[in-house]
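Q: Structure tokens for this one, please.
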Amino acid sequence: MKIKENSLLIGSFFVPFTILIVLWIILGIVPFGNNNLLASDLGSQYLPFLSNFKSFVEEGNLTFYSFSNGIGDTIFPLSSYYLLSPFNLLTLFFPHEQLPVAIVWIITLKISCIGMSMFYYLKKTYIEVSPFTWIFSTAFSLCGFTAAYSINFMWLDILILFPLLALGLQKLWQEKRVTLYVTILFLSIFTNYYMGYMTCIFAVGYSIYLYLKLSAAPSILGFIKEGKIFFISSFLSGISTSFILLPALEGMMQTKKTDFNLLTFLPYPKFGLSFFSQFGIGSVDFNLRLEHLPTVFSGILIVLLFLTYFLLPSIPKKEKKLSLFLILFLFLSFWIELINTVWHMFQSPAGFPYRNTFIFSFIVIKFAYEAFLRLQTDEKLPLSAPLIYTICLMGGYSALFLFNKNFIFSYSYSVISLVLIWLYYVLLNHRQKAEKGTALWKIFGILLTVSIFMELGLNYWISVKEIPFGNQQAFEQNYKKQAAILAALKKKDFERFKQTIISDEAGYTEKTNGYNDSILYGYAGVSSYTSTLHSDTQDMLNDLGLYQKNDRRIAYVDDSQVVNFLLNVSYQITPFENTFREAVSIDGQTVGYKNPEAVGMGFLVSEEFANVQLMEDEPIINQENLLQALKPEAENYFKPVQKTNETISPDEKTVLLEIITAASGELYFYLPNVSWSSTESFSVNGKKIEPNVYIKTNQLFNLGYYTKGDKVTLTLKSRKKINLEDMELVSLDQRAFDAVIASKRNKAIDLRWTKMGELFGNISVKNEDQLLYLSVPHDKNWLIKSNGKAVEQIPAAGNLMAIPLKEGTHSIAMVYRSMSYYYGLIITFATIFSFLFFRYWLYIKKKRELNKC
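A: Here is the predicted structure, written as tokens:
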């Protein structure tokens, strides 16, 4: 019997595994084809983060800080949100260029483990299992949440842990055994604190359900009294993750996720009858991943049996009422905006909504399995179940067709769903009528099982078939080429690079912005796209002219000499020709250019420089003020051009500008109020300007080098009216700017960066007290020493740092220490000892109770 149960448990892993392998073969996904999953956030975030994780482990870095993370930031919030899954260790067996293959295996293994975990829960909860139990375990592994969000694979771990968490809660309330619950809750928060937070809310609701189910005379005081073990164990388990939570919280408090929208705290309904359409197949696909209805699909048969649960007379009314309470508790978390916001850590999701739908699917499957077990006896499947299901589904489809045009409504999928309701009803009925163990009984069972597996596979295929798959061969070739160029150019420990990659050549089907290329290739960069992006750093870079799409992105799109100077962007790696730069490396069409204005990671400045306040959405003024603070001049460094002609079409959608440059140098163009996403063409002297990345607005353009008096013609065509308000066209006086560079070249410092997380370098200060400006983000966790003595840092140029130094030679040493991590570690160890004491107390208490008996 034990061997059979273990075989069934193993089978629960291989059923979804086999379904996925078949789908990967059909779709030509690596390693069964040349397509990879490098689309959306998987290509722009998760792949680079896994590459960084792989490098971190293989190189043995012992630092809490990374200069590949934007212009530099702590890696704790990023790691705790994206990288703590044990499945990520699989990347260690693949070279960097084959990480897309590793990701496919990670997704496949995670989804397969979800099936095994769900099977284990059903086996331990209901004892009775059979090959039919695979239907229910596979339904959870391929539920609507998985179908919609499997490429957000860092969220899949919670689905593996969740059935075990529910089992742990049951053991806690029924047997007063806490070990499983405490362990799984710890792992839930550890692997992804965001999803772990949701499980904490569920744990409270499920505990109320279990208490009411077990108690003969329930009351609030009774719940508090009986729930002491639950509250204490939950607190200890949650606080034991402090070594992760405290530094993550510190980092998240510095992002723009702390901004609250009051509208998201209003108790209004988010959807209507169209919700019921989600109980049919094909309710979501890749194109709707950012905005859709709750993905509560878990299989047609599952919903049919779930409805049957409430119609079977053998199930006590009390149990039905409690089950309905639990379902409504979860449904309200989708339906009411206020409650939905609370479930999502008090922030309404910016894309990928309803991230807790897997909990709803779990409960539906749980009650469906209970109904299935009762139908194995003399219970009959009521005709009212498929009738109710059909009416609800048709009502949902009607509402979707009439009122929700943006969501999927497919006649073919709706017909298939309605047919399957009645097909399953017929198969279940005929199987019940057939004598158990006969050939006919087995045939109906096989037909039922195969139909459900095909249905779940079909629904998953619908969700992923529209993904703009990447080209794995092109990705591997491009990665090797880019890595070789970077390795050839890295002559110092600490230089920043600006890398431009053509999406098509890199193997991406959709246009990528290369936000996290610095993390992917392991160099100090500028651009960044993470949910943990430091808000002050983002604002500073945006005020200097970099592109900010939203609160999670900052992109160094076009070239700015002043930005290169301030941030020590030493090299550009680009497929585009730049005649104004010295080419130092060529590999095919990709060229490495040296930026002569990058003099070092820092240089001596006066107090006036640190006092410059950056103005919002005024990049040219901000750059001018910083240059004037470094080397005051009677005339501006940025000189406005002479406009000789401005022609605007009658519909205001075409603009022709003819100008004469005012100085020899690079020409900069800033037009903040135009919608670049609506721009049809933008050309300079007939040459089309096409940014390699997608931009909407607020971008400072570098139009190239021109000598004084050159005539330049700009043509702009748009699908919308062009707003020329706040437009700026200026030339950076190259001779004056070169004088600034020359004045700082001998006052610059070259910092060295070690794997232990230390920065060090030497600099001499002559004549008077000065500030050492460093292109390192201001952060209180830096411990800075000059000649062995601690010195304080002050903010400069927005959110960078400056160090006051006196006359003399200084040996600068900096180390990043996450104090919140150390405090959290102390709390974690204290909690472990507390838990051991708590376990011992429970043991003594239980022993005394047994002795009384």
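A few notes: The chain has a mean pLDDT of 90. Residues 442 and 513 are 55 Å apart (CA to CA).
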